[in-house]
Amino acid sequence: MSSAHWAVIGILALAAFSIRIVGLVAGSRIRASRHAWVLDELPGLIVICLVAASLADQPLQTWIAAGAALGAAILTNHVIATMAVGVMTFAGLSLFGI
Predict the structure, then answer these.
(1) Number of helices and strands (H, E) in the chain?
(2) pLDDT tens digit string along 25-59?
(3) How far apart are CA 68 and CA 32, in angstroms?
(4) How far apart are the C-alpha atoms of 71 and 97, rounded to whole Å?
(5) What is the DSSP string of 36-53?
(6) In angstroms, rounded to a whole number, what is the distance separating the alpha carbons of residues 39 and 48?
(7) For residue 78, what are the contacts with CB-CB under 8 A and spacing of at least 6?
């Protein structure tokens, strides 16, 4: 490999290390601030963002299945049951052509 390749590898390694250091510093500062509650809610917020982005531009049957899954999640608080209800609802709607 040429020296340019090694330079790129070194720069990328430094960038990856820097990102981790900045994350650690920012996380410790947030934990010490009045915004510490955000870190507790962050995993759920990330999941909600991913689901919302996935539902954008989807047909009505997908939205109905997502609503059924949300209802199952609220009622059961069980991940497997939520997934099963969502998949079965989507499959049923697809089977009947809705």
Answers:
(1) 4, 0
(2) 988 888 888 878 877 888 888 988 998 999 999 99
(3) 39
(4) 22
(5) THHHHHHHHHHHHHHHHH
(6) 15
(7) 72
Q: How far apart are the first and last CA of the chain?
A: 58
- Structure tokens of 22? 């900045």
Token reading at 87: 């998949």
| Residues making up the chain, counted from first to last | 98
CB 69 within 8 A of CB 83: yes
**Do 59 and 79 touch, CB atoms closer than 8 A?**
no
Task: Name residue, tokens 């709607």.
Answer: 93
User: Tokens for 74?
Assistant: 């609220």
- At position 57, the amino acid (one-letter code) is D
pTM of the model: 0.60
Task: Say how far apart CA 79 and CA 56 lie, in whole Å.
Answer: 22
